[in-house]
UniProtKB/TrEMBL annotation:
This is DNA repair exonuclease. InterPro entries: Calcineurin-like_PHP, DNA_Repair-Maintenance_Comp, Metallo-depent_PP-like, Mre11_N, Pesterase_YhaO. Keywords: Exonuclease, Hydrolase, Nuclease. It comes from the Bacteria. GO terms for molecular function: exonuclease activity. Pfam families: Metallophos (PF00149). Residues 1-199 form the Calcineurin-like phosphoesterase domain.
Length: 400
């Protein structure tokens, strides 16, 4: 018996900020979440998977397009033709769909209601499986739902499906079905298929408690390998293996600079580094410059956008896979010409008070009601990026 654990497909993600992106690259980006799921379905068929578990956020938002819905239905119909069932729950992004008429979904798709329930079935090789889970019907589920999950059934394999976040790790994430790993392991299930966190990670091996991550990164903070878990059941043991499917990787390229570098030599170094960084997928790359000094020549080329535009003209034509640098930023350890030591002291004091999640939520409460904004700043990495960009802008103004 084999099954696939995936989550956070986020079909129809808007991918904002693509106005100046070449048409081909823009099209590839907009289609990337669809392409990733299509690859999962193709792999499921070719490897004779018994069923697929999708732990929340099939769509990026409730008001998804008809195209996205038709695509998902068509993929499920393709699975149905190959005798593969789908067990899914809706998450905080697509919570309203749980109340929709499900008649459009093919009969091989089994949707969990907004209350914890268990679905039991037997696979073709005689393995008896039980899956327990629930769908969101509101944007936030602040209750710890694990207490409602029953203890292990009299089955061969018991799977728990949960779209949520470990409690206490982030105050904002306590809005999303908070749980503790100890609570999950106490249920004596064989496998917990988790969703919501977009980086794949194993929280426990006995039993397996796993975030599959999202199959396709959606912005610069979602770097690293993206895919799903294929789980094989043999000799009464489960063995999960991570499989990559993302057609586009979001990556970070760090370059060391020195005071002898000109903008032209830096561009040469960057082009060569991007060539070495290229692989068998398309890539969107954020460039970070590390060093003790940023020369006025380099600073002017960054501020004007000339350096980035020059790189984009070169790399966008690479075949068979393109590379698209989206930004060039200078990290904090570099001494920016427009900022004195006293400026630095005041800046560090003020920045520590301002650039944290609690302050941003307090100052921009209404904006965070928009899901895509809340997602962008739901981690400290994004906030640090905002801080660095503002610091660079301030230093450049000071130089003028």
């Amino acid at each position: 018996m084999k099954f696939i654990h995936t989550a956070d497909l986020h079909l129809d993600s808007p991918f904002l900020g693509l106005q100046h992106t070449p048409a081909k690259i823009k099209k590839d980006i907009m289609q990337s979440t669809f392409a990733a799921f299509k690859k999962i379905v193709s792999n499921a068929i070719s490897t004779h998977i018994d069923f697929i578990v999708i732990a929340g956020d099939i769509y990026d938002r409730d008001s998804h397009s008809v195209q996205a819905e038709n695509f998902f239905i068509q993929q499920c119909e393709l699975l149905q033709k190959n005798s593969i069932d789908v067990y899914l729950s809706y998450g905080n992004h697509d919570y309203q769909i749980v109340n929709y008429d499900k008649s459009l979904l093919p009969s091989n798709v089994h949707v969990f209601a907004n209350q914890v329930e268990t679905k039991t079935f037997t696979t073709t090789d005689g393995t008896k499986v039980a899956i327990t889970g629930f769908s969101y019907d509101t944007r936030w589920v602040t209750d710890d739902m694990t207490g409602l999950y029953p203890s292990r059934s009299q089955v061969d394999v018991q799977i728990g499906m949960l779209h949520g976040m470990v409690s206490g790790s982030n105050a904002k994430h306590d809005n999303y079905a908070p749980f503790s790993v100890a609570e999950l392991t106490a249920k004596n299930y064989d496998y917990w298929a988790l969703g919501h966190i977009h980086a794949h990670q194993v929280l426990s091996e006995n039993p397996w408690v796993i975030y599959s991550g999202n199959p396709q990164g959606r912005h610069k903070n979602e770097t690293g390998s993206k895919g799903y878990y294929e789980v094989d059941y043999q000799n009464h043991q489960l063995q999960p293996v991570f499989k990559t499917v993302a057609p586009i990787d979001w990556e970070k390229l760090v370059i060391e600079i020195n005071q002898d570098m000109t903008a032209q030599t830096l561009q040469t170094v960057l082009v060569q580094s991007l060539k070495e960084h290229a692989n068998d997928t398309n890539q969107i790359i954020q460039i970070e410059l590390h060093g003790d000094t940023v020369t006025p020549d380099i600073q002017d080329n960054i501020e004007s956008g000339l350096l980035l535009e020059s790189l984009q003209r070169v790399t966008s034509e690479w075949q068979p896979n393109w590379v698209w640098p989206t930004e060039i930023k200078v990290t904090e350890n570099a001494v920016l010409p427009g900022m004195t030591s006293l400026d630095r002291q005041y800046w560090e004091t003020a920045a520590g008070e301002v650039f944290n999640q609690d302050t941003l939520h307090e100052l921009t409460n209404k904006l965070f009601a928009n899901q895509f904004i809340a997602d962008e700043f739901d981690n400290q990495t994004a906030i640090e990026s905002l801080k660095e960009q503002i610091e660079l802008d301030l230093s450049m103004k000071g130089e003028k």
